[in-house]
């Protein structure tokens, strides 16, 4: 297994049942996304990681306040409705948007092995977050896209052994990344449909 996937909880390990998406496992896997942006290594992604961190905190705060009503993401959101402010509902909505961007960018990278990350991430941004951002935020993201590391350097970091051992073969890195992305994509699409169906994305 590639070192990155040994050190974080994969979205493939987040239980998804008819009842919903397991809240705590999902939040733990989201921490791994922050590690992924650390691997990307550019300070230009600071606003992205800050946003993801802040929204994880909002969702976790709701879980801690009402754990028995928040075992799944769906329950957590449902049980916050009717309150004057819905910080967890809004936080999860933006967290999902950030995850959608990350997923789309890396799916592009996986589908086009000759494409540099700056191109893959720009395409991902254009199809996900861009429509929600104003002119200033779009400018910040434009800078971040240009600051993406070279593709070969990023994939080499995913494969590298921090202890100095041999790197993981590319085939295994790609296989694990594909599984991680497939599971993430499934959760994001499921939750986006849930928000849309019940109108939980309204009012923010």
Automatic annotation (TrEMBL):
Residues 21-159 form the Glycolipid transfer protein domain. InterPro entries: GLTP_sf (IPR036497), Glycolipid_transfer_prot_dom (IPR014830). GO terms for cellular component: cytosol; membrane. This is Glycolipid transfer protein domain-containing protein. It holds the Pfam family GLTP. Keywords: Transport. It comes from Rhodocollybia butyracea. GO terms for molecular function: ceramide 1-phosphate binding; ceramide 1-phosphate transfer activity. PANTHER family: GLYCOLIPID TRANSFER PROTEIN-RELATED (PTHR10219), PLECKSTRIN HOMOLOGY DOMAIN-CONTAINING FAMILY A MEMBER 8 (PTHR10219:SF25). It comes from the Eukaryota.
């Amino acid at each position: 297994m590639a070192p990155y996937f040994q050190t974080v909880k994969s979205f493939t390990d987040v239980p998804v049942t008819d009842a919903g998406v397991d809240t705590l496992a999902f939040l733990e896997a989201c921490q791994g996304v922050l590690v992924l942006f650390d691997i990307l290594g550019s300070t230009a992604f600071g606003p992205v990681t800050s946003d993801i961190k802040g929204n994880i905190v909002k969702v976790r705060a709701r879980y801690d306040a009402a754990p028995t009503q928040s075992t799944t993401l769906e329950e957590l959101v449902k049980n916050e409705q009717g309150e004057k402010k819905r910080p967890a509902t809004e936080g999860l909505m933006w967290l999902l948007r950030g995850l959608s961007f990350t997923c789309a960018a890396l799916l592009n990278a996986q589908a086009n092995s000759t494409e540099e990350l700056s191109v893959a991430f720009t395409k991902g941004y254009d199809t996900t977050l861009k429509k929600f951002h104003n002119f200033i935020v779009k400018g910040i993201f434009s800078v971040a896209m240009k600051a993406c590391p070279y593709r070969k350097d990023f994939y080499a970091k995913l494969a590298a052994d921090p202890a100095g051992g041999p790197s993981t073969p590319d085939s295994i890195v790609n296989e694990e990344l594909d599984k991680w992305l497939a599971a993430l994509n499934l959760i994001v699409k499921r939750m986006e449909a849930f928000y849309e169906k019940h109108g939980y994305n309204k009012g923010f």
